[in-house]
Amino acid sequence: MGTYAVTGGAAGIGSAVREQLAARGHEVIVVDLDGADIVADLATEGGRRAAIDAITERAPDGLDGFVPCAGVGPSVTPPSLVTRINYFGTVVLVEALRPLVARKRGCMVLISSNSAPMGADAGYVERCLSGDEAAAAAAADAIGDGQNAYAGSKLALTRWMRRRSTAYAKEGVRMNAVALGITRTALTDRVMADERLGPAIRGFGATIPTGSIGVPGQIANVIAFLLSPGADFMCGSVVFADGGHDAMLRPDEF
Q: What is residue 196's predicted lDDT score, i.e. its pLDDT?
């Protein structure tokens, strides 16, 4: 049996991933703000460092897989918090845990979104990709649009993954991403309850081709597959798990 680490694993999609891996007999190290094996705030440098150190201590022989599932939605304020958690909270841990995953020739699955291709400020995305967290956070707050911050963070993360997947593969690490559609979690419930964003998100959810909003277990199924030997020829892939929304909205962009 293997050893996996999951951030954001105390609730929502991360918890569903944890449950599936544990049901298969794997050890799962969970990182979250509370109710986790490792309690850490990934919006901060200190929290990221604490998480990295604790995971390394708990998995001295390496990791079979890592799923950085921690994230926040567009209703969070300030928008820079989205940047710090969704983008930098992910890439810092991915880079730091890379040697542990390489040791076992394991897998990483990042969490993207079907909103990533739907438009975001190009300058903000480039600031994320430059690695300048202060500049990217300032850009997010200057734009002042939570949806732009969210979509941009996921677009930047997906490009970051694609640009590095070859180098990771040469070290034995398969890295892919799942682009989520609307999925019923506490995070989504907060967005739907938001006075400004809620009506648009509810309306968008009503147009899902398969007929319903996703649930965490459906997304965890895809993540578990990408972590499995059955996906051993997948690398640098972005898998849409969104009930057909991306195909509906961008049928010719392939």
A: 76
